[in-house]
Each structure stands twice: as C-alpha cells, then as structure tokens.
Amino acid sequence: MSLYNLNRLRHFVEVVESGSFTAAAKKLGLGKAIVSHQVAKLEEELGAGLLVRTTRSVQMTEAGQRFYENAAEILAQAERAVQELQQEQEIPSGLLTVTAPEDYGQCVVARALMRLRVKYPKIRVNAVFTDEKLDQLKEKIDVSIRVGWLEDSSAIARKIGSFQQYTVASPQYVEAMGPITTPMDLQDKDWIYHCKLPAGILWQSAEGEEVQFVLQNPPITVWNTLTSHACALGHGGLCLLPSFQIREDLASGRLQRVLPGWHHKEGGIYALFPNSRFRPAKTKVFVEELIKAHKEVRDVF
Amino acid sequence: MSLYNLNRLRHFVEVVESGSFTAAAKKLGLGKAIVSHQVAKLEEELGAGLLVRTTRSVQMTEAGQRFYENAAEILAQAERAVQELQQEQEIPSGLLTVTAPEDYGQCVVARALMRLRVKYPKIRVNAVFTDEKLDQLKEKIDVSIRVGWLEDSSAIARKIGSFQQYTVASPQYVEAMGPITTPMDLQDKDWIYHCKLPAGILWQSAEGEEVQFVLQNPPITVWNTLTSHACALGHGGLCLLPSFQIREDLASGRLQRVLPGWHHKEGGIYALFPNSRFRPAKTKVFVEELIKAHKEVRDVF
DNA sequence: TTGATTGTCTCTATTTTTCATACAGTATGT
DNA sequence: ACATACTGTATGAAAAATAGAGACAATCAA
User: What percent of chain B has pLDDT over 70?
Assistant: First the structure.
C-alpha cells in the first residue's frame, strides 16, 4: 500500500481547511515549500490529483473532496487513539494483577491495594496471593512481589524495603522453656520448621558474634509461614517469622521475641515487573503505595 | 502530536496478529530488526509499552490490547480511503463539467457526451455551452473546449483536431450573385459578419496565392456563429462558417461553398484542463470520445 | 550439552524530510 | 500602467529516518 505518512495527510487537510498552502504552513509551523512538496508527494502516492493550484488559490478536485473527508476522519481517529492511550498513561486505570507470597500479601499488599482502590477507583485489582511461582507472562501479571532473597531473574526488580526475621514463641512456651542465654540453648527445643527455608539458622549478636546450627528432626514441619504463625500462637514452640507478620502479636503480647539481642539475616521485599520498556501508571502508583504500606510495618521492635 | 507513521502501525498490528516479530517481518517482507526497531519507536512515540517481549514470545500489554484495535481500524480506514480513490481513478465516474462554445458544443460535444454517458453510466455530465469565458476554477470545470486559435493560458491544452472555415451562402443567394471567379469579386457583397472575429478575410488558393480584404460596413453583424448560420440559411448573404457547423447543410444542399478552390485559415479544437498534476479518468475518456466525435465531422468537403 | 529460534543491537547505505533561498505568475492598489 | 504583495513551486544542501546484514544474548526442546 502506498499511503503511510500521516503527516502528509495532516498537511493536506490543513491546506484544505486553511484554503492556502502558506496559511497551512504557518499553522503547522513549517515552511510552505515543505507543505507543497509533501502534498505533491501524497498525490503521487495516491496517483490522483487532490488539489488544483493556481498561483492565487487552491481548489479541491472532486477526488480531493472525497479524500479529504476520509483523511480528516483518519487523523481524528489517530489522535483519539493516542489520546486514549496517553490518558490511560496518566490516569491510572485498568486491571492491576499482583502476585505476592501469601503471608506478605495478607499482611501488607492487601492493605496497599485497598488504599490504591480508594485513590484510583478506575483501577481494578486482581490479587493473587500464593507461594507458587506463576508465569508472569501467561498470567499477565503486572507486579510480582518477592520476599526474601532474589534468585536471578530476567525481570526487572525494584526494592520495596527490608524486613527482619525474629525468633518468637508464645509467652507460655517461653516460660516453659526456662531461662535462655545463648542461641545454642535453643538448638534442641521445639522448632516449627518452614520446609522451604534452609534448615540452618544463623544468629548474629550486636557485637558481631555469629552462631549457626542446623535443625535436626524438627518436631513440627510446615509449608508456609501462615501455618508457622498459627502454630506459634498455639504454643507449639519456637519459630522464625518475618517482622511484618508478627507486628501485632508482639505488640499485644501474644508472641514474644526470644533472645532479642541476637539478630537473623535481613531480608528484602522486591517488586518484579515484566520486561517492558514502559511501566503503566497503575504499576507506578501501586509500587508507591506499597512502599508506604511497607514502612508502616517495618522493624517494629 | 506524536503519531505519524502508518508503517509503524502496520508493523505493530502485524506483530500482534502473527504473534511474533519474525513472522511479522517475513510477512511484511522486511528484516526483523526493522520491525523490532519500528515497534520500539512507536512505543516511544506513544510513551507507553504495547508489547511485552521475552526472547521466546510476545504478549500485549493492556494498553497494547486497546491500542491494537484502534490501530487496526485506522489502517483499515486508510486502506479504504486509498482504494476508494484509486477505484475512482480507474472507473470513470463523478461529475464531469465541460464548457465549449455554443456552436461546437451543440454540433460535436453534445454527441460525445451522450456517448460517454452510455459507456460510463457513473459519469454525470454538466455541459456548459456558452461563448463566455468562465473561471475554470470557480466553476470547477474539468475540460474547457476552445475553438479557433489559442491565446496564452496557464492551463494545459490538448489538441482535439482541426477544422476548416468555408465561405458559404444559400443556393438562392449564390444564384443571385451571378458568376464569381476571384475573392475580390466578393468584397462588396452582403457579408454576415461575426463581430468577435477579425474583419479581415484571408484567402489562399491551392497554388499558394494569397488575397486579403477587410470588410467595410458589413450589412449584417451578428454576435455568434449560430446566428450567422441562421442568417445564411435565410439567404442573407455570404458567411464564413466552420466546417463542423455546416456539414449537414452542405450535404443536403441548403448551403453551398463559394469559391471552393480558395481556402481560409485552418483552426484547431483544443481541450484545456485545470493545472493539475493528475487527470481523472472521467476527463481522459471524455477527451478520447471527443476526438472520435470530432473526426466524424471533420473536413466534409 | 547442542541446535534452533526468539528479539535486540550495531554499523552502514539509502531514502526521506526539512530548511533557506530564489523564482514565476497573478491580483490589488495607486 | 506600474510597483507591490502575495501565491505556489523549484533547487540544493543538511538533517533525520528507514532499511538491511550480521552478530549477540536468552530461551526452549531434544
């Protein structure tokens, strides 16, 4: 097909509407030579005369008349298409699909999403809180939240924040254990073990001391942190849980930290995006909201 | 506005429909590098990601999905506009406005136009037979027929054919005149003078002899050849008339040539077109038809 | 692992677009 | 009739966009 340059169309339409090449050129901010040349080229492409020029005036041919209407319509439609797109770019809207691990999803992401809905009602939310790893493309996921430590991934990541891990237990269980002074005292206690995490537990004191031991035959094995949490609340024993998950339990006293002088490895929260050159507005505003929500639950104790 | 290249749109749409850059490039007959580059440029222009690429597959973003529909529509419309135009270019149609002098119009052009209508029913005809000179642009005249000798004009001319001028009179008048042997014998006869033509009459013999005289106080002055014709038929006197006008009269004997051994200056029939780079089909076929019609009336005697 | 396929990148050649200037024809006002 | 102002066009150089060939990294299937 011959027609491919919308600017030519624009020039032609402008000439028709202005009634003169010079006026059109002025309006378009171009030299009149260009407009003349472009319209001539358009005619050549189309193999038909559109305008009849004399040195003093411009008139449309019959073909030009008919083509003008089409041309104007095409331009209008093109403009509409672009505007529609850019409006979407500015006003966050559309379906936002977010995945996150179950625990972090429930504790933080859900709140961020609900606030987002209040701010931007045109965003529809699809929250997939699961510990499974989904196909970002197939499920059309806009943002994947990863908690912990990133493996390599082709996707682009943005750090949302960090979290601490705390060794906690219910007050009852702590009392039953009796006094504890060093991590090694905990080695043979009742650990609630999250099987997807490494069995080795690393302790770091404020002074830089390091102690590590590996859980041998933990009496309770669970498959996700929500279960760990439930077991700990049920006085099942010791449990390593992320700070964001136990914020309220620590505040209310339903759980308490064991050996608060010792810390575990800090983890990160990351947002992963599909590998696209541009990030839609809905994604941007969600990430901002998530960062805000995360700050509220960070490092409670 | 940013969007201006329809080829980009075409590439994008093709990628979406093929589901792959490589397939799209193949279909478009281009290198995949170009397609990739063009689509990237389109995204840049729009400030929005349209496609999410991985090394193995291409997926549309939400924005891309929506834009795709608009893009496809725009392309379809552009194609339609071009086709419509080019079809018009091939199948003669539309309003054909023709001007011609009254006499030639009635004698030749009308016939050509009527034949044209039979051949190409989609042509509508606007026949303006008048001796006035009209504004070609203002009246949207596609073809102006000029009879005689061209003055300068910015319009483009095409010669349709030529015609002779004959000095004629009715048989009665010729008989009344008595025997005539040389042009000078006619100088003081009753001339029917067409005031828009020069008063000087030039005679050329077959042997190359030239005689010229100027009409002094012609007894009958008329303003157009149709009147001349009528006066001649009414035995008013001698009259210089174009061949196409008196073809039938000569055949039927109602008029007859005077001094057929002497000739007058040959005239031409010209078609003038508006100064347009391209000539619509309707114009082309009309000119052909007119040439054919003219041949039939040319140089009867 | 290899081999095939994907999309992208780089470099170069070609085409297109733009600009500034000069030009020719025509209407207008004196 | 004349100059003036205005029209659209032609020309040639500079800038930009487009096209093509080959190499590259990433992925999937065997």
Answer: 95
